[in-house]
Amino acid sequence: ETKTSVKGNNGVIIMRTVSTPSPALILPPCSPGVLNGSSTSSSTFGTETIAMVHTPPTSLTHPQRSLRQPRDQQGAPIDILPDHAFLQIFTHLPTNQLCRCARVCRRWYNLAWDPRLWRSIRLTGDVLHVDRALRVLTRRLCQDTPNVCLTLETVVVSSCRRLTDRGLYTVAQCCPELRRLEVAGCYNVSNEAVFEVVSRCPNLEHLDVSGCSKVTCISLTRDVSFKLSPLHGQQISIRYLDMTDCFALEDEGLHTIAAHCTQLTHLYLRRCVRLTDEGLRFLVIYCPSVRELSVSDCRFISDFGLREIAKLEGRLRYLSIAHCGRITDVGVRYIAKYCNRLRYLNARGCEGLTDHGVEHLAKNCLKLKSLDIGKCPLVSDAGLEQLALNSFNLKRLSLKSCESITGRGLQVVAANCFDLQLLNVQDCDVPLEALRFVKRHCKCCVIEHTNPAFF
Protein backbone atom coordinates (compact mmCIF):
# COMPACT_ATOMS: atom_id res chain seq x y z
CA GLU A 1 0.00 0.00 0.00
CA THR A 2 1.16 3.53 -0.83
CA LYS A 3 -0.18 6.86 0.40
CA THR A 4 -0.70 9.78 -1.96
CA SER A 5 -1.84 13.32 -1.26
CA VAL A 6 -4.38 15.05 -3.48
CA LYS A 7 -5.38 18.72 -3.17
CA GLY A 8 -9.13 19.21 -3.40
CA ASN A 9 -11.05 22.16 -4.87
CA ASN A 10 -11.43 23.77 -1.43
CA GLY A 11 -7.70 23.66 -0.83
CA VAL A 12 -7.89 20.79 1.67
CA ILE A 13 -5.24 18.14 1.29
CA ILE A 14 -6.78 14.65 1.18
CA MET A 15 -4.68 11.56 1.97
CA ARG A 16 -5.52 8.45 -0.06
CA THR A 17 -4.25 4.91 0.41
CA VAL A 18 -3.74 3.06 -2.89
CA SER A 19 -3.28 -0.71 -2.87
CA THR A 20 -0.70 -1.76 -5.45
CA PRO A 21 0.98 -5.09 -6.09
CA SER A 22 4.61 -5.58 -5.25
CA PRO A 23 5.81 -8.10 -7.83
CA ALA A 24 9.46 -9.14 -7.96
CA LEU A 25 11.19 -10.95 -10.74
CA ILE A 26 14.68 -12.29 -10.88
CA LEU A 27 16.14 -10.98 -14.09
CA PRO A 28 19.26 -11.92 -16.03
CA PRO A 29 22.45 -10.20 -14.92
CA CYS A 30 22.26 -6.47 -15.62
CA SER A 31 23.44 -3.21 -14.20
CA PRO A 32 21.39 -2.11 -11.19
CA GLY A 33 19.89 1.30 -11.15
CA VAL A 34 17.60 3.09 -13.55
CA LEU A 35 16.05 1.08 -16.38
CA ASN A 36 13.92 2.81 -19.03
CA GLY A 37 13.45 5.78 -16.74
CA SER A 38 11.99 3.66 -13.96
CA SER A 39 13.81 3.62 -10.65
CA THR A 40 14.38 0.17 -9.16
CA SER A 41 15.82 -1.07 -5.94
CA SER A 42 18.11 -4.01 -6.49
CA SER A 43 20.29 -6.37 -4.55
CA THR A 44 22.87 -8.61 -6.10
CA PHE A 45 23.53 -12.24 -5.15
CA GLY A 46 26.68 -13.28 -6.96
CA THR A 47 25.92 -12.61 -10.63
CA GLU A 48 22.14 -12.33 -10.40
CA THR A 49 20.09 -9.22 -9.85
CA ILE A 50 16.72 -9.17 -8.13
CA ALA A 51 14.73 -6.26 -9.51
CA MET A 52 11.83 -5.16 -7.33
CA VAL A 53 8.91 -3.18 -8.72
CA HIS A 54 7.20 -1.67 -5.68
CA THR A 55 4.47 0.36 -7.39
CA PRO A 56 3.20 1.06 -10.89
CA PRO A 57 5.09 3.87 -12.60
CA THR A 58 3.66 7.30 -11.77
CA SER A 59 3.81 8.70 -15.30
CA LEU A 60 0.57 9.47 -17.09
CA THR A 61 -1.25 6.77 -18.99
CA HIS A 62 -1.60 8.99 -22.06
CA PRO A 63 0.88 11.87 -22.10
CA GLN A 64 -1.07 15.05 -22.82
CA ARG A 65 0.13 16.77 -25.94
CA SER A 66 -0.36 20.44 -26.54
CA LEU A 67 -0.17 22.02 -29.95
CA ARG A 68 1.74 24.89 -28.37
CA GLN A 69 4.42 22.59 -26.92
CA PRO A 70 7.74 22.32 -28.76
CA ARG A 71 8.19 19.11 -30.68
CA ASP A 72 10.96 17.89 -28.37
CA GLN A 73 8.60 18.13 -25.37
CA GLN A 74 5.79 16.09 -26.91
CA GLY A 75 5.25 12.39 -26.14
CA ALA A 76 7.10 9.61 -27.93
CA PRO A 77 5.64 8.50 -31.30
CA ILE A 78 4.98 5.02 -29.90
CA ASP A 79 2.38 6.50 -27.55
CA ILE A 80 -0.06 6.96 -30.42
CA LEU A 81 -0.39 3.18 -30.89
CA PRO A 82 -3.72 1.78 -29.70
CA ASP A 83 -3.86 -0.70 -26.85
CA HIS A 84 -4.53 -3.71 -29.07
CA ALA A 85 -1.33 -2.98 -31.02
CA PHE A 86 0.68 -2.91 -27.81
CA LEU A 87 -0.87 -6.20 -26.72
CA GLN A 88 0.05 -7.79 -30.05
CA ILE A 89 3.66 -6.67 -29.61
CA PHE A 90 3.81 -7.83 -26.01
CA THR A 91 2.68 -11.34 -26.98
CA HIS A 92 6.10 -11.89 -28.59
CA LEU A 93 8.11 -10.96 -25.48
CA PRO A 94 9.61 -13.47 -23.02
CA THR A 95 8.47 -13.32 -19.42
CA ASN A 96 11.37 -11.26 -18.05
CA GLN A 97 11.12 -8.66 -20.83
CA LEU A 98 7.38 -8.36 -20.32
CA CYS A 99 8.00 -7.57 -16.65
CA ARG A 100 10.51 -4.90 -17.64
CA CYS A 101 7.96 -3.29 -19.94
CA ALA A 102 5.59 -3.04 -16.98
CA ARG A 103 8.06 -0.58 -15.39
CA VAL A 104 8.08 1.98 -18.23
CA CYS A 105 4.88 3.91 -17.47
CA ARG A 106 1.45 3.40 -15.97
CA ARG A 107 -0.15 2.61 -19.32
CA TRP A 108 2.45 -0.06 -20.11
CA TYR A 109 2.06 -1.43 -16.61
CA ASN A 110 -1.67 -2.01 -17.13
CA LEU A 111 -1.15 -3.50 -20.57
CA ALA A 112 1.76 -5.74 -19.59
CA TRP A 113 -0.31 -7.37 -16.84
CA ASP A 114 -3.28 -8.01 -19.11
CA PRO A 115 -4.42 -11.59 -18.34
CA ARG A 116 -4.42 -12.45 -22.04
CA LEU A 117 -0.62 -12.11 -22.08
CA TRP A 118 -0.13 -14.51 -19.22
CA ARG A 119 -1.20 -17.85 -20.61
CA SER A 120 2.42 -18.94 -20.27
CA ILE A 121 5.52 -18.30 -18.14
CA ARG A 122 8.93 -19.06 -19.65
CA LEU A 123 12.06 -18.66 -17.53
CA THR A 124 15.60 -19.84 -18.17
CA GLY A 125 19.02 -19.42 -16.64
CA ASP A 126 21.35 -21.20 -14.23
CA VAL A 127 21.54 -18.24 -11.83
CA LEU A 128 17.82 -17.52 -11.85
CA HIS A 129 16.20 -17.70 -8.41
CA VAL A 130 13.29 -19.46 -10.07
CA ASP A 131 11.40 -20.51 -6.92
CA ARG A 132 11.00 -16.90 -5.88
CA ALA A 133 10.21 -15.76 -9.43
CA LEU A 134 7.37 -18.26 -9.71
CA ARG A 135 6.01 -17.29 -6.30
CA VAL A 136 5.98 -13.58 -7.13
CA LEU A 137 4.57 -13.99 -10.64
CA THR A 138 1.75 -16.29 -9.58
CA ARG A 139 0.93 -13.98 -6.68
CA ARG A 140 0.57 -11.07 -9.09
CA LEU A 141 -1.50 -13.12 -11.55
CA CYS A 142 -3.80 -14.21 -8.71
CA GLN A 143 -4.64 -10.61 -7.82
CA ASP A 144 -8.05 -10.61 -9.52
CA THR A 145 -8.87 -14.21 -8.53
CA PRO A 146 -7.39 -14.69 -5.05
CA ASN A 147 -5.17 -17.73 -4.54
CA VAL A 148 -5.75 -19.12 -8.03
CA CYS A 149 -4.63 -18.17 -11.54
CA LEU A 150 -7.16 -19.29 -14.11
CA THR A 151 -5.32 -18.03 -17.21
CA LEU A 152 -1.94 -19.72 -16.86
CA GLU A 153 -1.72 -22.88 -18.98
CA THR A 154 2.01 -23.25 -19.72
CA VAL A 155 5.05 -23.10 -17.44
CA VAL A 156 8.49 -23.63 -18.99
CA VAL A 157 11.46 -23.43 -16.62
CA SER A 158 13.88 -25.71 -18.44
CA SER A 159 17.56 -25.56 -17.46
CA CYS A 160 16.74 -23.57 -14.30
CA ARG A 161 18.96 -25.63 -12.05
CA ARG A 162 17.96 -23.70 -8.94
CA LEU A 163 14.37 -24.88 -9.27
CA THR A 164 13.34 -27.01 -6.29
CA ASP A 165 10.18 -28.73 -5.13
CA ARG A 166 9.13 -25.46 -3.51
CA GLY A 167 8.76 -23.80 -6.92
CA LEU A 168 6.60 -26.64 -8.24
CA TYR A 169 4.46 -26.54 -5.09
CA THR A 170 3.70 -22.91 -5.95
CA VAL A 171 2.66 -23.85 -9.48
CA ALA A 172 0.54 -26.76 -8.26
CA GLN A 173 -1.32 -24.65 -5.71
CA CYS A 174 -1.98 -21.61 -7.91
CA CYS A 175 -2.42 -22.97 -11.45
CA PRO A 176 -5.27 -25.53 -11.64
CA GLU A 177 -5.67 -24.92 -15.39
CA LEU A 178 -2.08 -25.90 -16.18
CA ARG A 179 -1.77 -27.94 -19.37
CA ARG A 180 1.95 -27.90 -20.12
CA LEU A 181 4.92 -28.12 -17.73
CA GLU A 182 8.58 -28.33 -18.79
CA VAL A 183 11.28 -28.66 -16.14
CA ALA A 184 13.99 -30.28 -18.27
CA GLY A 185 17.39 -30.28 -16.61
CA CYS A 186 16.06 -29.27 -13.18
CA TYR A 187 17.75 -32.06 -11.25
CA ASN A 188 16.54 -30.92 -7.81
CA VAL A 189 12.91 -31.81 -8.62
CA SER A 190 11.64 -34.98 -6.90
CA ASN A 191 8.70 -37.37 -7.06
CA GLU A 192 6.92 -35.47 -4.30
CA ALA A 193 6.73 -32.25 -6.32
CA VAL A 194 5.57 -34.08 -9.45
CA PHE A 195 2.87 -35.75 -7.37
CA GLU A 196 1.62 -32.34 -6.21
CA VAL A 197 1.41 -31.06 -9.79
CA VAL A 198 -0.39 -34.03 -11.32
CA SER A 199 -2.81 -34.32 -8.39
CA ARG A 200 -3.77 -30.62 -8.42
CA CYS A 201 -3.72 -29.96 -12.19
CA PRO A 202 -6.27 -32.32 -13.74
CA ASN A 203 -5.84 -30.85 -17.25
CA LEU A 204 -2.09 -31.42 -17.48
CA GLU A 205 -1.35 -33.00 -20.87
CA HIS A 206 2.32 -32.25 -21.56
CA LEU A 207 5.05 -33.03 -19.01
CA ASP A 208 8.80 -32.81 -19.66
CA VAL A 209 10.97 -33.99 -16.76
CA SER A 210 13.96 -34.97 -18.88
CA GLY A 211 17.19 -34.77 -16.92
CA CYS A 212 15.38 -34.83 -13.57
CA SER A 213 17.37 -37.73 -12.16
CA LYS A 214 15.37 -37.84 -8.90
CA VAL A 215 12.06 -38.48 -10.68
CA THR A 216 11.38 -42.20 -10.68
CA CYS A 217 7.59 -42.30 -10.69
CA ILE A 218 4.47 -40.33 -11.65
CA SER A 219 1.27 -41.23 -9.87
CA LEU A 220 -1.80 -39.94 -8.06
CA THR A 221 -0.85 -41.70 -4.84
CA ARG A 222 2.02 -41.07 -2.48
CA ASP A 223 2.48 -44.82 -2.17
CA VAL A 224 4.15 -45.53 -5.51
CA SER A 225 3.62 -49.26 -5.10
CA PHE A 226 -0.15 -48.77 -5.35
CA LYS A 227 -1.48 -49.28 -8.88
CA LEU A 228 -4.73 -47.73 -10.02
CA SER A 229 -6.97 -50.07 -11.96
CA PRO A 230 -8.58 -48.83 -15.19
CA LEU A 231 -11.90 -48.75 -13.36
CA HIS A 232 -10.60 -46.64 -10.51
CA GLY A 233 -11.79 -43.46 -12.23
CA GLN A 234 -8.80 -41.33 -11.21
CA GLN A 235 -6.44 -41.14 -14.15
CA ILE A 236 -3.79 -38.60 -15.13
CA SER A 237 -4.59 -36.90 -18.43
CA ILE A 238 -0.95 -36.67 -19.57
CA ARG A 239 -0.51 -37.50 -23.25
CA TYR A 240 3.07 -36.34 -23.78
CA LEU A 241 5.74 -37.49 -21.33
CA ASP A 242 9.48 -37.01 -21.73
CA MET A 243 11.63 -38.82 -19.16
CA THR A 244 14.89 -38.74 -21.06
CA ASP A 245 17.93 -39.16 -18.78
CA CYS A 246 15.83 -40.15 -15.76
CA PHE A 247 18.52 -42.68 -14.92
CA ALA A 248 16.85 -44.03 -11.79
CA LEU A 249 13.63 -45.06 -13.55
CA GLU A 250 13.07 -48.81 -13.26
CA ASP A 251 10.44 -51.27 -14.45
CA GLU A 252 8.39 -50.83 -11.29
CA GLY A 253 8.28 -47.08 -11.78
CA LEU A 254 7.27 -47.46 -15.44
CA HIS A 255 4.56 -49.88 -14.34
CA THR A 256 3.12 -47.24 -11.99
CA ILE A 257 3.39 -44.51 -14.65
CA ALA A 258 1.61 -46.63 -17.24
CA ALA A 259 -1.15 -47.57 -14.81
CA HIS A 260 -1.85 -43.92 -13.99
CA CYS A 261 -1.21 -42.32 -17.41
CA THR A 262 -3.33 -44.52 -19.62
CA GLN A 263 -3.87 -41.78 -22.25
CA LEU A 264 -0.19 -41.55 -23.21
CA THR A 265 0.47 -41.05 -26.92
CA HIS A 266 4.08 -39.76 -26.83
CA LEU A 267 6.64 -41.33 -24.48
CA TYR A 268 10.39 -40.75 -24.52
CA LEU A 269 12.61 -42.91 -22.31
CA ARG A 270 16.02 -42.19 -23.81
CA ARG A 271 18.92 -43.35 -21.65
CA CYS A 272 16.69 -44.78 -18.93
CA VAL A 273 19.34 -47.45 -18.60
CA ARG A 274 17.64 -49.57 -15.92
CA LEU A 275 14.55 -50.41 -17.97
CA THR A 276 14.09 -53.93 -19.31
CA ASP A 277 11.62 -55.77 -21.53
CA GLU A 278 9.34 -56.29 -18.53
CA GLY A 279 8.74 -52.54 -18.26
CA LEU A 280 7.67 -52.39 -21.91
CA ARG A 281 5.17 -55.17 -21.27
CA PHE A 282 3.46 -53.06 -18.60
CA LEU A 283 3.48 -50.07 -20.93
CA VAL A 284 1.66 -51.86 -23.73
CA ILE A 285 -0.94 -53.31 -21.34
CA TYR A 286 -2.00 -49.96 -19.88
CA CYS A 287 -1.21 -47.51 -22.71
CA PRO A 288 -2.46 -48.95 -26.00
CA SER A 289 -2.64 -45.53 -27.69
CA VAL A 290 1.10 -44.82 -27.80
CA ARG A 291 2.05 -43.34 -31.18
CA GLU A 292 5.64 -42.26 -30.50
CA LEU A 293 8.08 -44.21 -28.36
CA SER A 294 11.81 -43.88 -27.76
CA VAL A 295 13.87 -46.39 -25.80
CA SER A 296 17.19 -45.44 -27.36
CA ASP A 297 20.30 -46.29 -25.33
CA CYS A 298 18.30 -48.62 -23.06
CA ARG A 299 20.86 -51.40 -23.20
CA PHE A 300 18.68 -54.08 -21.60
CA ILE A 301 15.91 -53.85 -24.24
CA SER A 302 16.00 -56.88 -26.53
CA ASP A 303 13.92 -58.63 -29.19
CA PHE A 304 11.44 -59.66 -26.49
CA GLY A 305 10.81 -55.99 -25.78
CA LEU A 306 10.18 -55.30 -29.48
CA ARG A 307 7.71 -58.17 -29.51
CA GLU A 308 5.76 -56.34 -26.81
CA ILE A 309 6.01 -53.00 -28.64
CA ALA A 310 4.69 -54.67 -31.79
CA LYS A 311 1.37 -55.18 -29.97
CA LEU A 312 0.73 -51.46 -30.47
CA GLU A 313 0.23 -52.45 -34.11
CA GLY A 314 -0.92 -49.77 -36.55
CA ARG A 315 -1.09 -47.05 -33.91
CA LEU A 316 2.70 -46.77 -33.68
CA ARG A 317 4.17 -44.07 -35.95
CA TYR A 318 7.55 -43.26 -34.39
CA LEU A 319 10.05 -45.66 -32.82
CA SER A 320 13.62 -45.13 -31.68
CA ILE A 321 15.69 -48.15 -30.62
CA ALA A 322 19.08 -46.57 -31.27
CA HIS A 323 22.07 -48.23 -29.61
CA CYS A 324 20.00 -51.08 -28.18
CA GLY A 325 22.71 -53.66 -28.74
CA ARG A 326 20.54 -56.70 -27.94
CA ILE A 327 18.12 -56.10 -30.82
CA THR A 328 18.46 -58.19 -33.98
CA ASP A 329 16.49 -58.97 -37.12
CA VAL A 330 14.08 -61.03 -35.01
CA GLY A 331 12.75 -58.04 -33.11
CA VAL A 332 12.71 -55.79 -36.18
CA ARG A 333 10.68 -58.43 -38.00
CA TYR A 334 7.99 -58.18 -35.30
CA ILE A 335 7.82 -54.42 -35.77
CA ALA A 336 7.71 -54.69 -39.56
CA LYS A 337 4.94 -57.29 -39.50
CA TYR A 338 2.53 -55.63 -37.06
CA CYS A 339 3.39 -51.90 -37.11
CA ASN A 340 2.88 -51.39 -40.83
CA ARG A 341 1.99 -47.70 -40.46
CA LEU A 342 5.37 -46.80 -39.06
CA ARG A 343 6.71 -43.48 -40.39
CA TYR A 344 9.99 -43.11 -38.47
CA LEU A 345 12.49 -45.70 -37.28
CA ASN A 346 15.84 -45.02 -35.65
CA ALA A 347 17.88 -48.20 -35.40
CA ARG A 348 21.29 -46.54 -35.33
CA GLY A 349 23.92 -48.66 -33.64
CA CYS A 350 21.82 -51.86 -33.63
CA GLU A 351 24.71 -54.00 -34.78
CA GLY A 352 22.57 -57.15 -34.95
CA LEU A 353 20.47 -55.67 -37.79
CA THR A 354 21.23 -57.15 -41.23
CA ASP A 355 19.91 -56.93 -44.79
CA HIS A 356 17.13 -59.37 -43.88
CA GLY A 357 15.77 -57.00 -41.24
CA VAL A 358 15.91 -54.06 -43.67
CA GLU A 359 14.11 -56.16 -46.28
CA HIS A 360 11.25 -56.90 -43.85
CA LEU A 361 10.93 -53.20 -43.10
CA ALA A 362 10.94 -52.26 -46.77
CA LYS A 363 8.26 -54.79 -47.76
CA ASN A 364 5.90 -54.20 -44.84
CA CYS A 365 6.31 -50.57 -43.74
CA LEU A 366 5.46 -48.96 -47.07
CA LYS A 367 4.75 -45.56 -45.47
CA LEU A 368 8.20 -45.28 -43.94
CA LYS A 369 9.53 -41.72 -44.40
CA SER A 370 12.61 -41.62 -42.18
CA LEU A 371 15.08 -44.42 -41.49
CA ASP A 372 18.36 -44.33 -39.57
CA ILE A 373 20.46 -47.49 -39.86
CA GLY A 374 23.83 -45.87 -39.29
CA LYS A 375 26.56 -47.86 -37.57
CA CYS A 376 24.95 -51.14 -38.64
CA PRO A 377 27.96 -52.94 -40.14
CA LEU A 378 25.92 -55.90 -41.45
CA VAL A 379 23.70 -53.76 -43.69
CA SER A 380 25.00 -53.76 -47.27
CA ASP A 381 23.93 -52.82 -50.79
CA ALA A 382 21.53 -55.76 -50.89
CA GLY A 383 19.46 -54.23 -48.09
CA LEU A 384 19.52 -50.82 -49.78
CA GLU A 385 18.21 -52.34 -53.00
CA GLN A 386 15.21 -53.82 -51.21
CA LEU A 387 14.64 -50.50 -49.49
CA ALA A 388 14.79 -48.57 -52.76
CA LEU A 389 12.39 -50.92 -54.57
CA ASN A 390 9.69 -50.70 -51.90
CA SER A 391 10.03 -47.49 -49.86
CA PHE A 392 9.03 -44.89 -52.42
CA ASN A 393 7.94 -42.43 -49.70
CA LEU A 394 11.37 -42.33 -48.09
CA LYS A 395 12.54 -38.75 -47.43
CA ARG A 396 15.36 -39.13 -44.88
CA LEU A 397 17.97 -41.89 -44.85
CA SER A 398 21.03 -42.12 -42.62
CA LEU A 399 23.78 -44.62 -43.44
CA LYS A 400 26.49 -43.00 -41.37
CA SER A 401 29.45 -45.32 -40.67
CA CYS A 402 27.91 -48.25 -42.58
CA GLU A 403 31.16 -49.83 -43.75
CA SER A 404 29.48 -52.33 -46.10
CA ILE A 405 27.73 -49.68 -48.23
CA THR A 406 29.18 -48.88 -51.66
CA GLY A 407 28.30 -46.55 -54.50
CA ARG A 408 26.14 -49.20 -56.19
CA GLY A 409 23.64 -49.22 -53.32
CA LEU A 410 23.44 -45.41 -53.27
CA GLN A 411 22.74 -45.27 -56.99
CA VAL A 412 19.83 -47.69 -56.65
CA VAL A 413 18.36 -45.57 -53.86
CA ALA A 414 18.73 -42.36 -55.87
CA ALA A 415 17.17 -43.90 -58.96
CA ASN A 416 14.01 -44.94 -57.10
CA CYS A 417 13.51 -42.59 -54.14
CA PHE A 418 12.92 -39.32 -55.98
CA ASP A 419 11.52 -37.54 -52.90
CA LEU A 420 14.68 -38.06 -50.86
CA GLN A 421 15.46 -34.84 -48.94
CA LEU A 422 18.33 -35.89 -46.66
CA LEU A 423 21.01 -38.52 -47.11
CA ASN A 424 23.77 -39.05 -44.54
CA VAL A 425 26.76 -41.03 -45.83
CA GLN A 426 29.39 -39.66 -43.48
CA ASP A 427 32.28 -42.05 -42.86
CA CYS A 428 31.08 -44.32 -45.69
CA ASP A 429 33.49 -45.47 -48.38
CA VAL A 430 31.51 -44.30 -51.42
CA PRO A 431 33.07 -42.91 -54.60
CA LEU A 432 32.65 -39.36 -55.83
CA GLU A 433 30.68 -40.51 -58.89
CA ALA A 434 27.99 -42.06 -56.67
CA LEU A 435 27.50 -38.81 -54.76
CA ARG A 436 27.16 -36.90 -58.01
CA PHE A 437 24.65 -39.47 -59.25
CA VAL A 438 22.54 -38.92 -56.13
CA LYS A 439 22.69 -35.15 -56.56
CA ARG A 440 21.66 -35.41 -60.19
CA HIS A 441 18.60 -37.62 -59.55
CA CYS A 442 17.50 -36.16 -56.19
CA LYS A 443 17.87 -32.45 -56.81
CA CYS A 444 16.29 -31.41 -53.48
CA CYS A 445 18.39 -33.82 -51.44
CA VAL A 446 20.89 -32.53 -48.87
CA ILE A 447 23.87 -34.90 -48.76
CA GLU A 448 25.91 -35.10 -45.55
CA HIS A 449 29.28 -36.59 -46.40
CA THR A 450 32.98 -36.58 -45.54
CA ASN A 451 34.37 -36.53 -49.09
CA PRO A 452 36.35 -33.29 -49.47
CA ALA A 453 36.23 -33.51 -53.27
CA PHE A 454 32.41 -33.31 -53.42
CA PHE A 455 30.78 -29.88 -53.29
From TrEMBL:
PROSITE patterns listed in its UniProt record: FBOX
Compositionally biased region (Polar residues): 56-67
Pathway, per record: Protein modification; protein ubiquitination
Main location per the UniProt record: cytoplasm
Region span, Disordered: 55-74
Subcellular location: Cytoplasm, Cytoskeleton, Microtubule organizing center, Centrosome
Keyword annotations of the record: Cytoplasm, Cytoskeleton, Leucine-rich repeat, Repeat, Ubl conjugation pathway
One Pfam family from the record: F-box-like
GO CC terms in record: centrosome; cytoplasm
Gene3D superfamilies: 1.20.1280.50, Ribonuclease Inhibitor
Domain annotation F-box: ranges: 75-121
Keyword Cytoplasm: yes
UniProt similarity note: Belongs to the FBXL7 family.
Protein name per its UniProtKB record: F-box/LRR-repeat protein 7
Organism: Cyprinus carpio carpio
